[in-house]
Amino acid sequence: QKEVEQNSGPLSVPEGAIASLNCTYSDRGSQSFFWYRQYSGKSPELIMFIYSNGDKEDGRFTAQLNKASQYVSLLIRDSQPSDSATYLCAVHSGSARQLTFGSGTQLTVLP
Amino acid sequence: EAGVAQSPRYKIIEKRQSVAFWCNPISGHATLYWYQQILGQGPKLLIQFQNNGVVDDSQLPKDRFSAERLKGVDSTLKIQPAKLEDSAVYLCASSVDLANNEQFFGPGTRLTVL
What we know:
Chain A is mainly beta.
């Protein structure tokens, strides 16, 4: 079982719609959760982090965490073509003292 | 604030040759990370430094890979000898310290081994 799992996609949404990206993790001791955006040929860029159960909003982005279900998600409201990228979920385990990345979900926002 | 710097941006070598990558983290960041990202996968941690000490190198193929951060600032990652399967993007990241897991990535070095 992979430690951090994401649906690889591709996920396509029309411009203006809500894009929903999901991630599950296996280590119950995980304490912090990150979403990175990676444009093709570029390096990952940190866009959101969440430490506590519930929702965290930042502009058009909302991160949701449910530790009981070992599930973290990213919602992108009013999706724009510029949001087209691969979104990487990363989980930090206190015991492993390292960030473990999923394989990413490729998002395409259609004009 | 300047970001994480890496060089070179691209490198093409033949198998069994050696190669070195350089990274300069964000000023004031104590923790430095080297990742390997193979096409279609997420970054995989190779080694993690706190100042000039190694925190975790459990996933570093030590028979061919080495890394150092002698003065606790910039760092070098070396591969000797390279194999075809080492073709990947090598990413350097830094964070304020070990307790702060918000990592910021450099532009990466794309390595092609022929």
